[in-house]
Design a protein that fits this description.
324 residues; alpha/beta; Rossmann fold; five-stranded parallel beta sheet; four-stranded parallel beta sheet; 15 helices; 9 strands; 47% helix
């Protein structure tokens, strides 16, 4: 337990991410973290709240793309797939004590429920037939940053049943990418933080396959320095958030890779918005934040949130930043 989230604790948690990811990669190489009940399930239901849900939604999308019937729901949903023998439920909660996730898990308690949690002694783990440890370690800053990465990586293991070493390699490269961003932050962080620092908050855009990165990045800015931040899927942005670029001092963190990026950039450029790309240069945008292995979409998925985390930590630590 902590006395509450702190900027210094949050930054320390982010700085520990590379070592923790490297440890997770080593664990993945030793064997699948998931019981056979999950890897052989006909249907998989993923439940979680906040960053746990973000990770679950991306994992479910990948599972469906590989032919597995999978869906991710907020644990607070009133009704979803009913319990049945061919359905495995994976409930995700770092603490194992999220009220909504516990309430949802109670409907599926027993051998077909698997908990993904940091605390194997938690109430959630006790409800489940099996529990998978996140291995993220205690987050002293009180913000789910490493646990988000580890949840995502472990859920991705469900989609790489015959390629465990391949996923371990991705996690290792993500550790190197995160370390590179941390080691070189003196070269880019202050400038990026200044470009994103406006009166109307930050918008984060990412492709559908990495929508979780946009959601998590925006959450870090809201949860740490308590600043306005929103997330959009890049293609959908032109249908749901483009309007605000006309009236606000629009500052966008762009996570490249969407086939619909050109359309979004046309609007952002036309309206004089500030755009900071991460991981690749984008025509019409400002200088990009680059890092090791940023040409690998899977590495981006696990590493690109580091930019928003470090910006959030910097803003949070400033005396003028508000805290609620």
């Amino acid at each position: 337990m902590t006395d509450g989230p702190t900027a210094a604790g949050f930054l320390a948690d982010v700085e520990a991410a590379p070592a923790r990811l490297a440890g997770l990669a080593a664990t993945l190489r030793r064997g699948s973290p998931w019981p056979a009940a999950v890897t052989g399930a006909g249907r998989i239901l993923l439940l979680g709240m906040g960053s746990s849900r973000y990770a679950a939604e991306t994992a479910a999308l990948r599972l469906r793309a590989s032919g597995v019937a999978a869906v991710a729901e907020p644990a607070s949903v009133a009704a979803t797939w009913p319990p049945r023998p061919d359905t495995v439920v994976v409930a995700v909660s770092a603490s194992g004590r999220s009220a909504e996730t516990l309430a949802a898990a109670e409907r599926y308690a027993g051998p077909r429920l698997v908990a993904l949690t940091e605390d194997l002694g938690s109430p959630l783990a006790q409800l489940a037939g099996a529990a998978v440890p996140m291995l993220a370690g205690r987050e002293a800053g009180g913000v789910a940053c490493r646990s988000y990465r580890h949840s995502l990586a472990l859920l991705l293991a469900l989609d790489r049943r015959g390629d465990r070493n391949g996923l371990a390699d991705v996690v290792d490269r993500a550790a190197e990418a995160t370390a590179d961003l941390l080691d070189r932050r003196g070269d880019w962080l202050d400038g990026i933080a200044d470009r994103l620092d406006g009166p109307d908050g930050v918008a984060v855009l990412a492709p559908a396959e990495r929508r979780c990165s946009a959601d998590q990045s925006a959450l870090m800015i809201r949860e740490g320095p308590r600043r306005q931040a929103t997330a959009s899927e890049t293609g959908d942005w032109s249908h749901v958030d483009v309007y605000l670029a006309k009236t606000l001092d629009y500052r966008a963190l762009l996570l490249p890779g969407s086939a619909w990026e050109t359309e979004a950039m046309a609007w952002l450029t036309r309206r004089g918005s500030t755009v900071v790309p991460v991981g690749a240069a984008v025509e019409g945008a400002g200088p990009a934040v680059r890092y090791r292995h940023d040409d690998d979409p899977d590495v981006r998925l696990l590493a690109e949130v580091t930019v928003a985390e470090l910006v959030a930590a910097l803003w949070w630590a400033r005396p003028s930043a508000s805290g609620a």
